[in-house]
Model the fold of this input.
Amino acid sequence: MGPAGRGGGHSVREGHGPVRYGPPAPDPGLPVLPELAGVLAAAAGCGAPEPTGGGSALRRAATSYWSRHGLHGGPEHVAAAPGASSLLLALIAAHGGDVLIPRPCPATWIPQARLLDSPAYQVPTPAECGGVPDPYALLETIRRVRAEGGRPRLLLLSVADDPTATVAPPELVREACEAAVAEGLHIVSDETWRDTLHRPQDTVLLSPAEMCPDDVTVVCDLAGALTPSAWPVAIARFPDTVRGAACHARALDVLTALGALVAVPVAVAAAHALRGPDPVLDRVRRSAALHAWVSAAAYHAVLAAGALARPPQAGRHLYADLGPLRSRLADRGVTDSLELEEYLTERLGTSAPGGHRFGDDLGALRVRLGTEALIGTTPEQRLESLAAERPLDLPHVRGALNRFQAALADLR
Done:
C-alpha cells in the first residue's frame, strides 16, 4: 500500500499535472454582494496587512460565526490565513507525521501533503457519502501504516464534502472520529461547505468538534459561501488544550514563514460577513437554494443518461460516475478520467475535472460537475436566477439544462 503523498499518486500526461492544473472549488457564480463590496471599499485605504493569524476583529468575528453553529471558544484559539490552502499546509506541517484522508478528497489535499513530503494515505469512504472514511477501513489503514513503519498522526475529513456534494450522517462521523481519536490521531475537519446545505431544515450536519472538542481543529474557507472567491480568507479553530495551543503556535510559525497574511480590506469584509448581517445571511440562503434546484436537475439528467451519482446535498456540484457508459465512451476514445475530463469539458463548455484530480482511480470514469454554468452566463441572468422562486422555469436556466442533458444523453 503506497502513500499518495510520496510516489503513490497517479501519473498524468505532460501539461496536465495535478498541482499546477488543479481545479478550483466550485464557485457560486454570483456578483459580489453590494454590502460586502462597500465594506471592502471603505477599508481600501489600509495598506498594511493583518498580523500573522489575523487581527483581533477578524478572530472575534470568527468566534461569533462558530458560536452560531454551536462551537464556542475565544479568539485566542483562532487563526486566519489568505485561503484554505495555506492554512491547511500550516496545519499539516504543525502536526507532522503521516496524513490519512478519505478517497476521493478535495483537490488540494494530496498536493499539500506532497509539498511537505508527508505521506498521505487514502481511506475508502462508505457507499452513502464521501468526505468521511469508513471507520473499519480507517482502523485497518492505521494498522497497515504502522506495520510499514509509518507514523499516522492526522486525519483530514469534510462532513459536507467536495467533491461528492454529500453530507455524512452523524453516526458515521461519530464512529470515524472515535476510531481516529482512540488511535491517537488528531482530526482536521474542513467545514467550508456547511453553509451551502440544500435542505438545511432536513439535513443534520454534525461537526467532529462537537463530539471530540479536544482532538479536532475546524477549518473553514469563507469562499465556500460567505465571501467571493477572489477575496481569500480561511479561518481555523483550535482546541482549548495545551496540545492545541502548541499546534496553534507552530501553525502561526509556518504562516509567518510563508508570508501568508490577510489583506486588511479583505479581513474587514470577511469579519463583517462572519458576524452574519441579514443581507449576507439572505445571500447565503438564496444561493444555497438556487444551487439546490439546479443540482437536483443535473443529478436527474445524469441518472437519465444511465450514469450514477449520489444525490447532492450541499455545495454547487455533484460527482458523477460514468462507468456504466464505458463502452460508449470507449468508442469516443475515452478510457480514463483524464480523457473524460477533456471530453466533457469540451462538450459542456465548462470545466469538468476528472476523479483523478481528487485522488480517485485514474481508470474510473468519475467527474465533478459544477452547477455555476447552469444559472446564467451574465451577472444579470445570475441575479435573476437568484431572485426567482422557480429558477428552472427561467429561459436561460432551462436552456442551459437542456444543453447539459443533451450532452449526457448522447452517451446512451
User: Anything to note?
Assistant: The chain is about 40% helix and 10% strand. Confidence is low (pLDDT under 50) at residues 5-20. The radius of gyration is 21 Å. The longest helix spans residues 278-304.
